[in-house]
Amino acid sequence: MLLAAVVVGLVVRHAWMAAFGPGSTKEETARILVHDLKFGGRAKQRAIGYGDGILPLIQNESGDFTKLNGRNSFWIAEVLGALETDQSRKVLNDLYSRTNSIARLTGAVGLAQHGALPEDITEQSFLVRTVQSDANQTETHLAIIALGRSKAPAALPCLLDLLRKPAADYWHHAYACAAVARIGHKDAVPVLRDCLASSDFHALSEAFRALITLGDKEAVPLAISRVSPELKNYNSGFVVKELKKVTRKSYGYDREDWQRWWNSVKEGWQIPEEFRKSWDEQKHRY
User: According to DSSP H, which parts of 36-153 are helical?
Assistant: First the structure.
């Protein structure tokens, strides 16, 4: 009976890992990355660990990248970007040369991470025009990410203009905050402050962490001013967790407690060193 229970447990565990895990073989990892639209992101690190050996499998599973969509394109771009090899660069350049917009943008994200975008960032460049047209959610998000990964100061006007406007989608603003934090230019600080102070802006945790990364301690009282019980169960509510991480204090959704704490320490409080690193050196929720 005990042996049978162990066998059953192993079978259940294997089934769970196959359904929700990163895959136990290269083939399974590639399959999850491409086809599991809910949990495929969990296969990213395993795929990166396989190196160039994963590339033909991803290409095969995706039908030579014709099956890229609003989920797997982000994960595949990240994998290809992390594999800074001649083979991954070849795949990315091929994607960037395609007429399909999602394929081209997937290539752009990876190439930007390699520091190898074929096109300079200007007002008329492909990525900027894609963001400004805002015609497709997936394409807009991929373009924002690519602009951030380019780390080009020339991308800032487009991104800051996006942050100044009401967003059709929460993630437009969230990705834009991460993008300006990656670029790391102080010109973003006033705009991010305005975002965090505006009741019409909801990507609070991302704006907060972007300001902190840019060395602006004013992010703390601005974030505290937005804390309220009404944020619970919304993406905006993650600002409370980010406050806790950065300040190492925990007052939940009680704005008055947060304010009392801040008033008692604001003169001498400094941003912890781990949050003064570049955006990609920090640990993030996403």
Answer: 44-49, 55-61, 72-82, 86-96, 101-114, 126-133, 137-150
